[in-house]
Write a structure and sequence with these properties.
InterPro entries: AP-4-A_phosphorylase, FHIT, HIT-like, HIT-like_sf. The chain has 186 residues and is an alpha+beta fold. The chain has a domain of 127 residues: 2-Layer Sandwich (HIT family, subunit A), CATH 3.30.428. The chain has five helices and five strands. Strand 1 and strand 2 form a beta hairpin. The chain is globular. Bound molecules: zinc ion.
Length: 186
Amino acid sequence: MADVDSEPIEQAGAGVPDNFQRLWTPHRMAYIKGENKPTGSGADDGCPFCEIPKLSDEDGLIVARGSAVFAVLNLYPYNSGHLMVCPYRHVSDYADLDGPETAELAEFTKRATQALRKASGAQGFNVGMNLGGVAGAGIAAHLHQHVVPRWGGDTNFMPVVGHTRVLPQLLRDTRDLLAGAWPAAS
Ligand SMILES: [Zn+2]
């Protein structure tokens, strides 16, 4: 049973949820605003994908770390369990990935689908990259592969106000589930 009077939890990268979240308990919703955009295109301009790996897995919502790439939950998810696979290196163009980055990005994409199937029973996936702002990339300067789990009947989820979305699980709980389901290297 959720505690409706508990204080909002600060989530790294997402800011502190405001009190509206209490309207939505018992699923203490992650409350997401568009307030963590980089100030420029450089790695030192507040790029979240350069900052996240410096955090603990729990604070950064990192599901798995490889040698060239990592998998992290999206703070602006299209669906519960929406993952991204990112190179550690601040690179915008897919063609600029080196061999090991290309291979591990593909391998982590595969494992992300396996983890999502195991943890959440995902029935399908949308997988891909938006390269460049004109293609819809939110953080165009640091490429990232989206892995969005899909279930029958999940469309038209509730965008409530602006970037706010109602999610059926806390992001931290989702991270724990997916990290536990992440397949070992084969
Ligand atoms: Zn970056």
